[in-house]
Specification:
This protein has helices spanning 4-30, 43-50, 88-95, 146-149, 155-158, 176-180, 215-218, 221-233, 249-260, 275-283, 294-305, 335-344, 368-371, 394-404, 422-430, 432-435, and strands spanning 33-39, 60-67, 76-85, 112-113, 117-125, 137-140, 199-202, 206-208, 241-245, 266-270, 287-289, 309-310, 318-319, 327-330, 350-353, 375-378, 384-386, 391-393, 413-417, 439-443. By secondary structure, the chain is α/β, with parallel strands linked by helices. It is globular, with a radius of gyration of 25 Å.
Length: 446
């Protein structure tokens, strides 16, 4: 028969066990979960997707039980999104319709949250964050440069080009700080996270939204900053004739950027869909051409720009000579639009490639860059710009433009969805003509 002491000890142990079990249960119950759309970058999935052996959304994971992220480094900030826009690059990633070269700039953790066009509220700040406070309304840049991490500046950053910073690829300054972030090639990648109820980013990637700019307009600051950077790569003179290929949000923002930066050049927009014409003209386009037949399109461009179309032995006609568009901004940059750009640009003109709908090209006749002596410029994201005798961040300049004409961008966010309706949102963003969509966004409760 057990003694009273043994019974007491046994009861005590059971009591302790129950307390510990309850504590573990409470800890588990207290873990905050969130809704999120995560990109699952697995080579096997990407190959199956490329071979059309996988489902439409095989590259993403949507769940309601992702753990709420927490700040790991003192320069980081926790943000709660209000509204997040779907970018064409998000669709390209989901469809695996993007250059393999982009993999060197991908996030190192996996899976990672999608969505880089974000307006949100600062929820928590790291110990070394300055200039931001809890409750601030902010917009987000996906570029995490040396400054964000606290590294000594690389050559790109020294040159005022943080958009091509080597830290994006996981190359730091070979210091102890680099090791704290995981070491060489163990960190980096373009930042994102807007397709979730919370995300963590670096303070250097955030820009305060000025009072008076509504959330849906502030959402367009990132694509407008992209457009400003592209236009700054080759700013048109007042006498130039410019073609903007594409009237999606980036193409439209290029028109706005050209006018906002003060150029009175002639702007011709090549739009896929007639409903885009009204917006393009509102933002400053002089003419909009919506034509699907290539030969007819070329003729209309030649007639509009006094260009000379010549017919080679085989293939499409070529605009050649001293007349025609001086600058072409290709906001789509597919294999076919790049080929169109080189066929239509005037001799000694400039092509600025802004879109990323291409990888290894099969149709583009690149020899035209030699025959016409065309300058080809790439434009990556956004960074620092020289403007009115000062160096200014593209984002700040975008907000200044918005403040000058606060109502100009109203109505460009045409579709809003809750994150639960992500399939519908992605479908609408992928089929703009059917839905008359300009910018599609996820909206979160404030």
């Amino acid at each position: 028969m057990r003694s009273a002491r043994a019974l007491l000890l046994s009861s005590f142990c059971r009591w302790i066990y129950l307390i510990e079990s309850s504590s573990q249960f409470l800890v588990h119950q207290n873990v905050v979960h969130m809704k999120a759309i995560m990109y699952d970058l697995k080579i096997s999935k990407a190959v199956r997707k490329k071979m059309k052996l996988a489902s439409k959304y095989t590259m993403i994971k949507y769940r309601t039980d992702w753990p709420k992220p927490s700040i790991k480094y003192p320069r980081q900030v926790l943000v709660r999104p209000i509204i997040s826009g779907i970018c064409a690059s998000d669709i390209h990633q989901i469809e695996v319709n993007i250059s393999y070269a982009a993999s060197i700039l991908a996030r190192k953790e996996n899976p990672f949250p999608l969505g880089h066009e974000v307006v949100g509220i600062v929820e928590e700040i790291g110990s070394e964050v300055q200039g931001l406070s809890i409750g601030d309304r902010v917009s987000h840049s996906p570029v995490a440069s040396c400054e964000c991490y606290g590294f000594d500046y690389c050559e790109s950053c020294k040159a005022g080009r943080p958009e091509t910073c080597q830290a994006i690829a996981g190359i730091g300054d070979d210091s102890a700080l680099e090791k704290k972030y995981g070491g060489r090639l163990k960190f980096g990648g373009f930042g994102s996270g807007g397709f979730s109820e919370y995300f963590v980013t670096f303070a250097g990637q955030l820009q305060k939204v000025p009072e008076g700019i509504p959330d849906d307009a502030a959402l367009l600051a990132e694509p407008l900053a992209v457009a400003i950077h592209a236009v700054k790569r080759k700013l048109p003179s007042d006498e130039d004739t410019v073609i903007v290929i594409g009237a999606g949000i980036i193409g439209l923002m290029i028109v706005r950027a050209i006018r906002g930066l003060g150029s009175k050049c002639r702007i011709i927009v090549l739009a896929r869909y007639p409903f885009q014409e009204v917006v393009a003209r509102k933002l400053g386009a002089d003419k909009v051409i919506s034509e699907k037949k290539v030969d007819t399109l070329y003729q209309k461009v030649a007639d509009t720009t006094d260009g000379h179309l010549l017919k080679p032995v085989l293939g499409k006609r070529i605009l050649y000579g001293g007349s025609g568009p001086d600058i072409i901004y290709d906001s789509i940059a597919s294999d076919s639009t790049l080929d169109d750009s080189l066929h239509l640009i005037k001799n000694n003109g400039t092509l600025v490639i802004v879109g990323m709908d291409f990888g290894v090209t099969k149709k583009t006749d690149w020899v035209l860059t030699v025959y016409k002596q065309v300058d080809v410029l790439g434009s990556m994201m956004h960074g620092l710009e020289e403007h009115n005798d000062r160096s200014i961040d593209s984002f700040k300049l975008a907000f200044e433009m918005m403040m000058e004409e606060p109502t100009l961008l109203e109505g460009l966010v045409t579709h809003r969805y809750g994150i639960d309706d992500y399939k519908t949102a992605f479908s609408v963003a992928s089929h703009k003509e059917k839905n008359s969509a300009i910018k599609v966004a996820f909206e979160f409760g404030k």
